[in-house]
Request: fold
Amino acid sequence: MAQGRALTSLAGWVEARTARAPEALRERVLEHIAAIATSGNAAADLADAAHHSLAGVLAAPGDRTVALDLLAADGLITLALLRQAEDDPAGLVAFARSLTELPAPE
Reply:
């Protein structure tokens, strides 16, 4: 049940900050968030969702069909950085650096 509450809370936070984004992009971002196991660390969860999105891009043929997932990954990284800045501004630099150190998708 805690997983569901965390996901609902994170989805609500994302919806509030993406209200003016194109509907298709917002929906895809939320799909990637729903596809991951939340940890309780919203910024890290958003970064994990971005990795999930990028894994789909890398597994797909290199054509336009991946454009929305690539945009979603970009948006999720931006949202992860925003959430980190809101939750722990002093940790933003370290968090941003950690995003470049994530292992490549398999």
